[in-house]
Structure formats: C-alpha cells, structure tokens
Amino acid sequence: MAAFFITSALALAGSAVAQLEGRGFPDCGNGPLKNNTVCDTTADPLTRATALINAFTLQEKLNNTGSTSPGVPRLGLRAYTWWQEALHGVADSPGVNFSDSGPFRYATSFPQPILMGAAFDDDLIRDVATVISTEARAFNNDDRAGLDFWTPNINPFKDSRWGRGQETPGEDPYHLSSYVAALIEGLQGDRNDKYKRLVATCKHFVAYDLENWNGNYRYQFDAQVNQQDLVEYYMPAFQQCARDSNVGAFMCSYNALNGVPTCADPWLLQTILREKWNWTSEQQWVTSDCDSIQNVYLPHEYGSSREEAVALSLKAGTDIDCGTYYQEHLPGAYEQGLINVTDLDTALIRQYSSLVRLGYFDGDAVPYRSLAWDDVNTPHAQQLAHKAAVEGITLLKNDGLLPLPISNGTSIALIGPWANATEQMLGNYDGIPPYFHSPLYAAQQTGATVNYAAGPGTLDPTTNSWLNVWAAANKSDIIVFAGGIDNSVEAEEMDRVTIAWSAPQLDMIGQLATYGKPVIVLQMGAGQLDSTPLINNANVSALLWGGYPGQDGGVALFDIITGKSAPAGRLPTTQYPARYTSQVPMTDMTLRPNSTTGSPGRTYMWYNEVPVFEFGYGLHYTNFTASIETPSSPSSYSYSNSNSNSASSASYDISTLTTTCTTPYPDLCPFTTFPITITNTGTTESDYVALGFLAGTHGPAPRPNKRLVSYQRLHNLTAGESQTAHLNLTLGSLARVDEMGNKVLYPGEYALLVDTQPLAMVNFTLGGEEKVLDEWPQPPADRVKFPRAKDQYFVGGYGSEQVLE
Amino acid sequence: MAAFFITSALALAGSAVAQLEGRGFPDCGNGPLKNNTVCDTTADPLTRATALINAFTLQEKLNNTGSTSPGVPRLGLRAYTWWQEALHGVADSPGVNFSDSGPFRYATSFPQPILMGAAFDDDLIRDVATVISTEARAFNNDDRAGLDFWTPNINPFKDSRWGRGQETPGEDPYHLSSYVAALIEGLQGDRNDKYKRLVATCKHFVAYDLENWNGNYRYQFDAQVNQQDLVEYYMPAFQQCARDSNVGAFMCSYNALNGVPTCADPWLLQTILREKWNWTSEQQWVTSDCDSIQNVYLPHEYGSSREEAVALSLKAGTDIDCGTYYQEHLPGAYEQGLINVTDLDTALIRQYSSLVRLGYFDGDAVPYRSLAWDDVNTPHAQQLAHKAAVEGITLLKNDGLLPLPISNGTSIALIGPWANATEQMLGNYDGIPPYFHSPLYAAQQTGATVNYAAGPGTLDPTTNSWLNVWAAANKSDIIVFAGGIDNSVEAEEMDRVTIAWSAPQLDMIGQLATYGKPVIVLQMGAGQLDSTPLINNANVSALLWGGYPGQDGGVALFDIITGKSAPAGRLPTTQYPARYTSQVPMTDMTLRPNSTTGSPGRTYMWYNEVPVFEFGYGLHYTNFTASIETPSSPSSYSYSNSNSNSASSASYDISTLTTTCTTPYPDLCPFTTFPITITNTGTTESDYVALGFLAGTHGPAPRPNKRLVSYQRLHNLTAGESQTAHLNLTLGSLARVDEMGNKVLYPGEYALLVDTQPLAMVNFTLGGEEKVLDEWPQPPADRVKFPRAKDQYFVGGYGSEQVLE
Fold this sequence. Notes:
2 copies of one chain form a homodimer.
Chain A: H1 2-19, H2 45-54, H3 58-63, E1 68-69, E2 80-81, H4 113-118, H5 122-141, H6 173-188, E3 201-205, E4 212-213, E5 216-217, E6 222-223, H7 227-234, H8 236-244, E7 249-252, E8 256-257, E9 260-261, H9 266-276, E10 285-287, H10 292-297, H11 306-316, H12 325-335, H13 341-357, H14 379-392, E11 394-398, E12 411-415, H15 439-445, E13 449-453, H16 467-474, E14 478-484, H17 503-512, E15 519-524, H18 532-536, E16 542-547, H19 553-562, H20 580-583, H21 603-606, E17 624-628, E18 640-643, E19 646-653, H22 654-659, E20 670-680, E21 686-695, E22 707-717, E23 722-730, H23 731-734, E24 736-737, E25 743-745, E26 748-754, E27 760-767, E28 771-774
Parallel strand pairs in A: 3-7, 6-8, 7-10, 12-13, 12-14, 14-15, 15-16, 19-27
Antiparallel strand pairs in A: 1-2, 4-5, 8-9, 11-16, 17-20, 18-19, 20-23, 21-22, 21-26, 24-25, 25-28, 26-27
Helix pairs in contact in A: 1-12, 2-13, 5-6, 5-14, 6-8, 11-12, 14-19, 15-19
C-alpha cells in the first residue's frame, strides 16, 4: 500500500507543474464548488475552508501539502503556488511571473531592508509596504502572482558576516519589532478589514542567522541559545508578528534550536507561537523553509525514517512544505499510522481559510480586484523608492566637504566596483525594476563631466585594471570612490569570512587620497566593513554608507553628496573592528561577553570594546539640540525638570505601575511618553532621528550598555526650527529578561538617553519589589533532541563543539 | 621627478594594451634590432639578452617589468604577454587567444592534474605535456599565445578543503616530484636542446594551499611552517623543479612564510632557490602571482611605502610583476634610491635570455615553427585525453556488480548534478575543448535507453526538482548517480567548509538505493568527500571517483563501468572522515599529530586515525600478487630472498653508501632498484600501479606511518600475465628530515611495502653512524619580518592566532 500512495502522490504532484499557467481564482459562480460552503461569502473563513477540505479525498489532501499545490481539478480548485517573494518589491519567485514585455514587465524595487532600517522611519516602511501590496494585488489580478508572500526576514542581524543580513532592518530587536509592525500593516492592511491585502510571512523562526560558517551549514546547524538570549534577542520581532501584528504566516527555519529542528519543534510552533502568543486563528499557517523538511531528515537526522521526519514536522505544526517532501512521504507516514486525517485537515484548513480571508473565493467582491498595471510603478511609488534610499543613506565621516554642489564645469572621477552598479543596487530577492539609476547615471545627471573607471572588481584581477583609474583621477576635480561589498561576497548560502575592506580597494583609495583632490568614499553593501583606515586618512574627506539602495540608488547618493537632500540615516548595525571576526565564532549565539571564550559580546547592547561606529551613528549637514519636556504621565507620575536638557528625580512604584494597567499583555502597558524638542541650530534643512536608549542600574549584572526603547524620525526641520518627537515607553521597555526567559520589572535607576552621544537625558527610578511581567514557558524537560545518535557525516566545523542545553 | 616617472610609466604601460594584437616575433632580419647582438644566433642567450637590455633606456626598462610588457617599439621589440596558462591543455588566459571560428578555436583538454595524478603514470604525464607544448607552439606560431606558461601548480594538496587542490597531482611530495619531472620534460623538452619547447613555471613558491578560510585570505595569510615540515613536505616538488628539472620559471605566492611575503623574501628566492638549488641560469626568472606584489604592500603591510614594497620584491628576486605595480611604483623606488639600474637589468636579462632560449629571436631556425593547426587535436591527442581519464578513475567500492556490460535492451537512469556535465568536467584553468563527452553522451553511446534527471543541483533548490528523478529511476534497470562537488564549491578563492556529501545528494542516493535496482555512484570533483554512508549502504553496489576527467570524461567513466577498460587509478589524497575539518584548522601548516591542538596529523604519512580510504587506495576488476626479485644492487649490497613475496635481512653501512656515490647531490645517489614481479591472477586484463612505501624504525620519533618512495604503472596485464615493476630508491628515499631541515641517513630498520595493503614486503637495515646527506641553510636570524607593526584591518580568522617562528 505504501508504494501505491507514493506513486499516486508523485503522479499528481507532477501534474501540478503543468497547471501553473492556469493560476487564478476558483469559479464560485458556475464551477463545481458553487454549492460548497466555501463559496458562501456570509460564512466565516473557518467554516468555509472546513467545507472545502471536507470535499477532498485522502489522496487529494496528501497531494496539497507542498508549496506547489496542485489543487483539486475535480472540484474546480485550481493549482496554487504558495511561494511568492516581495522583500523590497514584488520579486522573482516561483509564484511570480513577470511579463517579457508590455504590462507587468517590472515592479517598483525599493532599497534592501537594511537601508530602509537605517531610515528609522516606520511611516516610510508602512508606505513602502502599501505600495508593494498594491503592486502585488495588481500582479495577482493579472494571474501573475499569488496572494501570500514570504516576507519579511526579521531575524536580527547579529553578526556582520551573515550573508542575509541585508534582508533585515538591523541588529536591534526593538527596532525590528517596530519596523515589522509597520511593514505588516502595509502588506496586510488593517487587521479588521474583511479582506487582507496580502498575507505576510515572518521568517525564519527562529535563531537563524548563519549560512555556512566553517563547516556549519544552515541546513544542519544546531543553534544553542539559552532562554534569556532567546526571549531578549531572537524572539521579540516574532512575538510582534504573531501576538501583536497578527501576521498571516510564519516560516520555520533550517537550523535546529537546542537540539530540535525548528520545523519539527512542537514547543516552538505550538507552545510558544500558537499558545503563548495566541496565534490561533485558523487563517494562519506555518510553512517550512525550502526544503527544510527534507533537512529534518538529512542532515539533521531527526526522525529515524523519512516518514517519521515528515510526521514529526506536520504534527509539530508545520502546515506547508516548501518542496515535495510532504507530498512524497506523508502517504507513507499515514500508512504507518504516524499521522492521521485530522493532522492533514488542520494544515489544509489553515491554508484555505487564509485564502478565504484574502478573498480568493469571493471574485469581484474584493476591493483589490480593481488594481491593475496602472497601479504599478506610479509616480508616487517612484518617489517613495527614491525617498527610502535617501532616508537610509548614512553619513559616517565629513570634514566639511559635504554637501558639495556640483556645477556644469565640474569634473568627477567616479571610480570603483559600485560606480556603475545596476543589479548590484538591488541586493537579493529582487524583482525587475523599471530602471536602474546607477551612481554613474546620477553623476551624469548633475551636468558634471564624469570620468568613470571600474577599477578593482572587474574581470581582470590584476592591477592592469587600475590604469584607467589613475587616468580618470588625473583629469578630474573631485574623486568619488564607490565600493565596499556586494552579493558576490555576502549572499544566501555565503557568509563573509572577513569584515575588512579588501586590500585592493584600500590601496586604491589610499593612492587616490594622494592626488590632492577631494575624495568621497561610498561604502556599499549591507554588512559593515571596518572603515578605520578611511577614518584615519585625513585626505579622505567624506564617507557615506549606502547599503543596497534600490532602483534609484545612484540618484539618492548624489542627492546627498550635492546637498539636494540632507543625510539623516543611522547605522542599523554596529561597525566592528576587523578583529571582531577572530574573537567570536559565528556559531556562538550568546549575546553577553564571556571572559572564558574571549567573546567581547554581541551588538551595541553587550559589546564591551570600542566599535568603529556604534549602532545608531550618523552625521548631519547641520546641528541639533534636544530638550526633554514634561512627559505625559502614568498615574504614578512625579517629575521635576532640573534643567533644559536633562530631567531627573521622577520615581515610580512597580506595583502601582503594574496594577493600574489592564491590557492582556503587561509588557504593552503604557509607561510614559517623553516629548523631546529637537531644534535645528544649523543652517541646513534636515530630518532628524530621535533615538531613545535606556540605560541605568536595574536588574542583575551583567547589564547591557544600553538598549533602544523608542525612536521617531522628524522630517524637514528647517534652520532654527523645532519639532517634538514623542518617545513612547511601555512597561516592556523597562523590563529585563531573566535567565528563565521571564520579563521582569526591577527596582533601580533608569536613564533615557536621546541619541548615541546623548543630546539630552532623563533619569528616573523604580521602587518597590521586582515583578514578573511575563512568564516564559520552559521547554519540556523530556523534549526529544536528536532521537538518533547523529552520524559524523555532517559534523560542524572548527570551534563549533555543541553543548546541549 | 617622481611625478614625471610615474606619469610616463603609466602612459607607456597603457599603450601596451593597444599593441597586444601585434604579438609575435621580433624581426631580426630587417628590423631595428638586426645589428644588435640579440639577433646573433651564434652568441649565448646571456650575451644576447644583455645586448638587448643595454639598448633600453631607463624608462624602457621600468616599463618592461610587468606581465603585460609593452616591449620597445623604438627597437622593433614587440609587446609580450608573460601570462599564459596551460594547466591541462592550452587555456584561456591573458596571453592566449582562441579563435571564434575556424583554426585555433579549441585545444585538447586533458583531465585536471588531480585525476592524472591518480594514474601514477609518469610516462602518461610526459606524453600529455608533450601534446600541450606541441599545441601551444602551434598557437604561438599563429600569434595566439606566448611561449611561457604558468603551469604547473605543484603545491601539495594537504587539506581536502583547498579550492585549488584540483590543480595538483595530490598530497604526496615524492609523487609530486616524480610527476612534475615528467611534466616539465614534456612541456620544455630535452634540457640539452638548443631551443626549449616552452618555459614551464613551478608555482606557488611556497607553502600556498589556502584560499579563504575563516578570515584568512591567501593574499594576507602568513604561513607558519617549521623548517622540518618545509623541507620534508612543502619544498620537494620545488627542489625537483629547480635543481633537478631545470624548469624555466618560478612563481612566488600570495602568502607570507614565517613573517615574510614570499615574493619579497631573499632567503627564499636567493638563498634557497638560486643558491642552494643552483637555479642560476640567466634564462630563469621568477614572476609574482597576480597581483602579489600589490599584496606585499596591502594586505601584508610589508614595506612602509609602495615604493619600498616593490623595491624589496625586485631585490629579493621577483623578476616579473603580474600586474602593473612594478610599472607604477618602481620609478618612485628608483627615484628614492631604493633600487638601481643593475636591479632592473638583472630582472630584464633573465626575462629576455629566457625568450632567446625559446628561439624568440631566431625566426624559422626554430624547429617548432612548423607546428600548426593540424598539430592540434590530433587523433593521438584525443586518445591521450581519453586514456588519461581512464587511467585516473579510481574504483572505491564494488560488490561485484562492475564491470557491467550494457546492451541495447538495457535502460539506465542517469541522475545527478554531474549526469550531463560539460564545462564541469574541465575544472578550472580550462581552455575550449573540441567536444564535451558528458556522462549522458557516453551512456547514450552504449546503445542503452537513458533516462536522465539532473536532480539536486539544478536551479530549483527544492525537492520539486527531485520528481523527475523518481520517474527516471522507476523506469530503468540500472541507476547511475553522478554527483559530488564541482567548481561551485571548490575553486580559486573558495575553500570548502565541509568534506561531507551534501545532504540532498545523500538523501537522494539513499532513496534510490531502496528501488531494488543496481546503484552505481560516481563521486566527482577533486577534494575527497566522506563516502562512509555509501560504503555502509549495502544497496549501493559500486563507487567510482572521477575527479575532473576532461573533454572525454563521460566516455572514460562508462568505459570503466562497462568493462571496456579496467580501473587501476589510485587515490592521490587521503579520504578523511567528515569530522576531520573540525579537528584541524586550515591555517595549521604542521604535518605531525599534536595532542595539544588535537590535530590527528596531516596526510597518510602522519594521520593517526582511520581514514575512510587511504592514499593510494584503488580496487581492480581482477586480482594481483607481487613478489620481490633480487634487486640490482649498490656496491654494498648483501641480500637474501627469504620467500616468494617477502625479502629480508639485507643490511647496508651508511658510510659505505655515502662515500661510494659521487653525484653532486647525495640524496640522488642510487640506493637500489627493487624488481617487483606483478602477476594478474584473475581473468580481467588490467593495469596495475606498483606503489612502493617505506616504513620502519629509523630516525627519531615521531615517525611517519609510511612514505611513498617509488611507483610504476604497469600496463595491460592479461589474465595470468606477469610483469616486472622496477622501484628505484635513492639515498634520498631513505633519508629523513631533522628539525633544522637537514636530510639525514639514520641507522635502523627499513621496510619496503608494495601497495597499500602490502602484497609484498622487503626488510633491510642500515648500520653505522647517522650521516647528514644535505645541510639546509637556515633563515638568517636577523630576517626582517613585517617591519611595520601590522594593522588590525586584516587580522586572521578564528583559531588562526599566529606565532612567529
């Protein structure tokens, strides 16, 4: 019988491929489903989906467990591809079909999240995500895309070497949470709307931030994370997605967590995700990463057979398999009694109630059905792609050269591997943009004479390729070097091995700096590079970090250079000295410094040495001052403003704070909002990002250096103008996480610092007894970790000896 | 003045590019040089080259120091490109120009050296190299290539992770030396001929075998090697090249050795290479790697300025800079008095006397001038490319399935990422072959029905791509899986991070093994993979290792499978268990096991655990026995043959052995030749490689497990036939290397073992006092190591803390 199931499943799964062209909407008007409750728009999604799945045969259920879902032709249920991508615009992916010509041949391509993260502007992110969901709906209406998208990647960018850090907004868990809340709103729409705009997918759950470091591949890596780091650092953005932003989907990750592959972990997918975080709507589902169910079997070697591996995954709560491993091996698992029909129904009802909620069965009743090609690449979208790049670009060094107006008579040497960047500007998970406005294009638009030379990074690996660089520099007034890294060294399946600038680039910049001409360096790419040599070189006048700036990236960079726009981006990750990579193996998941291992700690919160540039660093073309006004207060408020830019002596009682709040989640209880008056004391109009960091002596040592608890970007402060940023703090902002993963309010001293080198500060104290705000469910003691003795075929690399928790 | 030099040099160097099209021979009949002694064919090369260089101006001398040499148009001396490649056939490289159509559109492409190494057949290597030099001369005569080629790569393949191990014949220094001697004969011709066929280039001198491991790039790596390991392991092949095979050129490497970049190391390039090894002909030169002179400055930070870096390199003995760093910065170095004209003359005279010896100035007097397109891709060359692949392919497992004759009625499922390999078969440093005979092509030639499926490794990363694999397997009689690794994971600038089979491939093979059909696995690529799971799987009947088999690789593989040819290749490297990469960092250059670091030792000589397959392993389709006959003897010979396959009780006196020999190099003194009678006791005609290993208790502990001292491949032993292999041993075969690097003959017990699981053995003893055969010049105590305090921008990776010697 097992052979029968396998053969049949394969045959049907294979036929799904041929049906992909016919993707679209089921016909509830005249099709076979018209009398099925799934077509009853007055019923709730659960009821509708349940009716649909009840009409499936067992074989049809088994067949529809993969990302390429054949549907049920017998019922008029068309094939559906679950795998769409839209990381920074509708992107090439199995479910997305760009046209070769005419309508739908491109979509707006925004900067990579790492650069949008640097904007620290949640409104911007919401606007960008709204454009993406609008364009995705237009593609869907033309039968060119599905309705669920496997974005965002919201794993914290903890280690500069990570090849996929570019997909994330940065290293800080509060920042990620705030960013992702805005993003999900833009992608999915208002949670109370009858129809979701799209389904977003928070990935990769959880503790995934390694591609291939020294013998450790993401497919087999067993991340050892203690509960404190897990709750404090790796989980917050996912809690935001599930508990607070009602995201439609999750993706489990390739790695194992403390001995259990995440896609086969019931503690993670049931106890935490669905129970602890109340992510219990049937419209919500978990997909595997591609092909992480196969990886549960090999190389994780979790489950003694392929059938057991798929059964463990399905029962743990992974509803969709990106791949065919479910379709191939669930029939055998069923045959062996390892799963039952209810297990299949649970997964399928989640899938299809999600589609119901997207209006998949409701035809033109769905308002988004009117979106079309005219709604793609609108002037608004183009402007927003430009704005997002401008807002993220971060000024790291400026000796006064910038802004540098460029007139028609000026000649610019534009040099380096990013000088004529086109696809490079997009980073990964890209679509097809309407245009590539490269730095070279942008420089030429200024009216200047541009002498372009690619320099190192071209196909010729020798210094022969440098000769045209000297020629370009010799005949130019200004030298702009655009380099750094790109997807040739940081990419999916490719972590970096160093965070130093490449020697040829440094040598070339060093030589260019001897020409006696202004030199501007553009440091591109997501992972930071140790720019110490450029800081120390007095002849390098300015350094800008530009990430992956998207379709209009070159224009954005030159708008900053010329002063058409003022820089106000902030580094979303720490720039470490190059030696950092020799101090911490990528496999070390701990955040706190460790004198035994020699780790100096991870992220600006725990790193105990001097960074090259700290998290949040960013210069302006003007100066700002800050003063803290009387905050709106909780009931226990008592506060006195001691001077213009420092406030102190407020004190609060912990039990009062916690008993006066009645939200279901105490960490969301408001604490207070600090109004910060920001004044532009210079002469250049500029945005300003108010970053609120919390520091102070509260809770047990070791204590973080500080931690971001609130931020707000203010726009267009003209010379002399003041605006007020409102930094909201909740009780969760004040809480720390104990070794068990519980969130605890501790009595002690607190200080809110405005900006990295604080422009203002307010001190306050909490008194009374410490109080657990949120209790963390511990992994069960009898949790099964690698039930088979792991073979040695896939051992981890040097320095990666694993100690089970 | 410095500015003048720099500008002028750049202008002329730039103009070299335009002259490249006109490469060819100087006109000694009517050109401006006709009365220069360089055109006097009766003068010796040194005199001729000196006359030429004396005619150069200073500026012209400075301009001709790079690999793209502009020549001297004023003198009718045409531009010359020094950079040609011919690793396994005339290859794409700056100095080689394939035609788009018509003649010279391809050249014979042999297997990668790693597979040719597995043949253990020096005659084969000489033949292959002769074809390469013949084809290269034909290209040269059509003005499509120069006359010097930057091959061979003769660094020992010590670590399976090394991305360029494919370019070498294997891990054993004796094997490499013997191989390279044959290769250089084929490439350069008889050393007494008036005209060299080509100039070969032994690279990379020395201790270069790391691309980018965990923060360590080849460009910056400082290899810490003690003198014992250096002489015993890293140097022998280079000594063979320089001292014994009179190779025309050397290439210094990217790495530093014990604190000094090799291209700037006078101890290495002068004391060892030129003085110790008598490599003193002016026709011999050293080129930098590309662009290792730039790397001397950055990232090595050796030399306080660019001018000092180039001066140190030139004065150390690097005659040609691959790149433009010499051309750019030697003018400044000259201006600052860091080099003088004599330094330039030395380098230039070496270059041009080399060209004189190649007949560059002698027109049609050179016999090779008649070689033409008809001499490329001859039937002999095609057969040799096929033969080289057949001889190298190594049988690792066979349950009796092979040989498997394939008839017209048979159906074969040919599955995996190598099943339809074309370019993959060539590996790196490839040219354009006349054809790609893929495994798929070869399978189809058998007359069988071939069901092909690429499986994992295709663009679709998910198990969706597996579906056609099951379909192919279902309808076939035999399953052949062709996979492993290729240049996507082992390549220049890319070391591997694991030596395990990829999980998707293992999973797929495992599933295929459940079909109840014969399964044959082809393990392709250079670096060994831990094939333990395939050995342990009883349903995998056969395992063949095929390396990179070249243009006819598919046919060679199927000739072995079907029994048209019998396998006799031997593994040229150890196949380690996957855990090995977690036991030894790539940066660890030591060979001996180390209980402190946990290293189990490197290579079959020192590894103290159980390998998956040992160096020299290889199965046959028949059985062989060996017996040792009375050897030819040195004067001190006394020997008695105790039984048919074991000989013992010979004893020799060390002082007699050393005093009766008068060769200039005592390690080359003959010791004895052991005649080994090999008998094919089976029914299948087959080659047999007689490997002679030396073991025994002589010299201080720790002692190597054994070491290869001689080998010979016997051909076409028919059923029952006996042939005699002659295993020659010299005094150097018996010597060990002490901690100072001296070669020493020690009294003690010796055993010569025939084959890895010995078929025969002979014991003998050496008596008397230990005797230093060869004294090693120590690096000077005042050697300058990194005169600048190294910056931290380029620190090495985790676990790579360097301790200077």
